[in-house]
Amino acid sequence: MAASFLPWLLLPLLFAAAAAELATYIVHVSPSEKPAAFAQHLDWYVSAVRSTAEDAAEEAAERIVYSYGHAFHGFAARLSAAEAAALEEVPGVAAVFPETVYQLHTTRSPGFLGLESHAFTDLWSSAVASHDVIVGVLDTGIWPESSSFRDDGMGPVPARWKGACETAADFKRSSCNRKIIGARVFSRGYEASAGTLEARERSARDQDGHGTHTAATAAGAAVPGASFIGYAPGTARGMAPAARVAVYKVCWSGGCFSSDILSAVDRAVADGVDVLSISLGGGVSSYHRDGLSVAAFGAMSKGVFVACSAGNSGPDPSSLTNVAPWIATVGASSMDRDFPAAVRLGDGRNLTGASLYRGRRSLAAGVQYPLAYFGGNASAAADPRALCLDGALDPRQVAGKIVVCERGITARVQKGQVVKQAGGIGMVLANTAANGEELVADSHLLPAVAVGAAEGAVVKRYVKSAGRRATATLSFSGTRLGVRPSPVVAAFSSRGPNFLTMEVLKPDLVAPGVNILAAWSAAISPSSLPTDRRRVGFNILSGTSMSCPHVAGVAALVKARHPDWSPAAVKSALMTTAYVQDNTGRPMRDAATGEASGPYAHGAGHIDPARALEPGLVYDLSRQDYLSFLCTQGLTPPQMRVFAGPAGQACGRRPGSAGDLNYPSFSVVLSSAAARQTVRRTVTNVGAAASTYRVTVTPFAGAAVVVEPGVLRFSRRGQKLQFNVTFVRKAQRPAPEYGALTLADGAHSVRSAVVVTYLSPA
């Protein structure tokens, strides 16, 4: 027993006496290596911190920020860099990483997704109620008084629920009900880095609006007569309106800290959630160093489905976050609803745009007003005046005019505020080439119209040619339905390839994320600008933050219908039933280019809830399958212990190929050195007992593809059959080729996206 203490007792001798600046570190441990002398893991953690402390060792317990022990094991602590380095050498410690700060990835969608027919709604709502599916939302909290969270007709809270409703001065026990069954606050990591919150701030009440919006999108109750100041009128409802909601507040004004996120996921798993919706992300350098990746792995291991937003850094390639294969990575697409507005130039040309403006400062119909653009020329955007940055506009040049502003650097609504403060009467917000023709509507505080890059260029050329004679007027047309084509992949939606593992195609799929109506917090204005005094019950937002809860909510519906399915089976059902055509019957387009979208933008395709209910076949995966995949990624034994525990997962001499992960999509890399690749897949029959599936594959110009066997015959439900897919390079191609592998039995079409990348010789 004495020997087990020796490493802990000797470590203080490694340090100098002077105290160093402390920061928060995440410490992952192998739980079975806890010395027997410690009754509790927390005692072990305190002893470890005390033994490594450079000074004030008696305060070791106060250094512990969190202790984790449900989805994974470890703790968060305030340490110096030297203490963290020394702690990493201690037996039982798997890894020590510095705190990471994540950022939020900032109706019509149920109907657009086919969820509003009476038969379909009754079927799915009753399925959720019968299983009492619980959706956990990690975000900025919730506004419990919103009508989206009423519990009309809901039964008692499931007996299996272990969560709590943490109260505060502005969040009473009555703030929870049979709909909002849990509300917890995680702020210790944030406070350790950014300063102590006031007691009244440490509340699950949403002061930002983002969390209320995402929770309502995932599982909000049906609210007839909803709208945003008259825009998008109708019944607002979440994807799974009968599901329960559990709120985990992890995001604050300074961001979302990884120690808080890990604690929230750990607690959510212990509480008993079925699905997690996490609309945030940060930089990713590896699977084992990404706290959200590690937390999601632990949740998956306990049977919890995790959906995360892909990020809003598109259309740049390899701009994704949350790329781990055990996470459902969700990109954003548009719907068939928009909010048309128009710019009429003084030369008679009409340009179409979008806006959510509705205020008392509307421009007189048909009256032309002076139009100004301060970019220097028709294409320049470097001038701060062109970007309408704070303090950049001269009131003497702006007063009484409509001003053309370029997107970029500051928030879109902030640009309008700058124009308004300088005396402008309106704004034309022009997309740049990166934004393409995508139109994101905003609730501006002055008359403003967003236009695409092409229309923006027209406006700027007109101003340059007309000079001081340039004029324009703005008009607003409310809400339009039936927009074609739709869906379209959002330009801002982050793109693949997955820079950690090209063989894992990301994003996984796309869902509505442009101009989404959902509940809002009464604590903040719809524009989030301090000068905006408006308060609304519903708001319209865009971002992969909005697409993520769509997938989480639909996953709750699938889980309700198939409660015994693993998270991987649920994700497979969502991916293999996704579609890649728009409502004109053509390939789904990319808003950034106007051309056909590809799997690096839309993954498997656009979510289709009705088909996901009965996919026919699923590509299933277990915790061990993911560990085998991690063995292909070159992780060291200590790094593997972050996921696998004390054994560190004995990978063997030949860990295999990342391409053999039983994923519902295919991404194959062919080179001169590896011109032939064979990948293996296993499908599980979840459809008719006796069924025969025939395999078809898109032809590729640069590779021959052979599937063996080409026919799969099932005799019972639950039966698993394997097939191999061999890719042989025929010719070098300058760009990846896209296609699909489909298994069809006449009733089901199980589609997997396929990407073949050809590496050039060095």
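The record above closes out task 2.4. Task 2.5 opens with a second protein, given below.
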Amino acid sequence: MLPLFLRKPPSYTGDDDVASGNRDVVEETLSLLRNLESILRSLISTCGRYEARLWLCKTVSSFHSIDRKDQLSLFIELLRLERSKLDVAPRILQMIFEKRPRTAGRILARKCYLLEKFFQGNGRRILLWFDHFAGVGESGHRKGARALSLYAFANRDAYWEELEWKGKHGQSPAVVATKPHYFQDLDILQTIKNFLDYVPDFWSSDELAESVKDGEILKIDTTYFVDQFSEMMYKEELEEIWEIIEEFILEEEFSSLSQSLLILLDQERLLFFLKTIGEKINLNARCQDYAKPSCWLEILLSACSDQISLDELVLLNAVIANSRQLLRLVSDEEHEEEKEKLGALLKTKVTLSDAEHWAFIKECKNMKLQEATKFAGLLSWVLYYCLSKECMAAHSWETLFNANGISFRKADDYSFVHADGSEEGCDSDSDVETWSSIGKRKKKRDKKKRKKHHYGDDNLDETIDMGTTEQTKNSGSRWFLSTDDSSCAWNTADLPEHLGRHCFKTWMKWIYSKD
């Protein structure tokens, strides 16, 4: 039976004597984990660096301990970095244009001279903005057409002749005033060319300013306006631009900002961001209890963000928060060498008793937090690896739950089976293999070519191609577990990942505690 080590040994007294006599086993376990670290680090650095960094950015985006004031400071500091002019600033401006176009439109209304260059020699832009005159029975002109008509009437004595009509003769202001649909007979392209050449006041007029205030014009060519606003940010240092950015950062969710911006950062800036965020994390009791999946990283960064490298954070996040995606990466046909090394390593006999595992925990307590987190994470990934490789029937999972003190009930049943296993329906015989079989070779893969996976995909229903027909046959079995207070019905495909994370959380709470 596979032990999950979710309970302290019965002989535990709270002192360091628990670990006596187990030094050799602890050293053997640490040696295995170091070798595992070396294999995974090599794999990530050579083949999966981009994917693994995306996983890290996703974990950071789920942080919940950053208040709005610190969020503002954090992202403004990022924007002030020289290289952020090229990627972070354009992306955050694009987000503003998409989500709060009116805030940008208000600034553009005061900078209408930018539109003169925007429309110069570009017929497509002209038609998209000005060709919106109302037809017969319609309520009124829209967008640039409204601005053009209002300006032309207000300045008819000076500029009406600049209106170019498609017919043999033009229309007078008096006629068009009674029949506004006649504006549809304008040659829009030639008219706007005339206004660009001979009516400079139009491009700073109140009529045009009013038409762009809602920000809809930004959709015509977002890249152009992003470039113009970026220039006003950094070259002109226009305070209005920074004000709307600060307002946006304060109002936007931390997760949205992180998911959109962190993936753009190079290694140096991402590490800078992580070190900076470590100074702003406000740990609460729930975080210290590892209530959220990202708590381990929040605790780690708040304690030692200046002592840990980006490569270490990427590796830790891969084994702790993305165990399934990491195994997919290992299992890819392009990484056959690393897969063989991993299989050979985990063939090593690893048999830990409760006391020996507690000795391991005690050893971790004496390490720096980042080292302890790494070893606990690697050991939990070994456990995940073992559970993923096993072909377990439904009753075998239930035997595993009972043996490790996990209360459960089937998703289609209302009877709750307690950790003592007293409830009927649980077979005491198990086909779950022990830790000595964690390196059992994977069954021969189906010759049918496996579909390629995106490593950042979070589709939990997608299973790894293990050749485990028995697991597939029992995939309909689902349980509510005491490991998460019965908040989710777990199926056989997701149980390895859930139990691996639960073990890591339990062990880290022991390591982090002072007793």
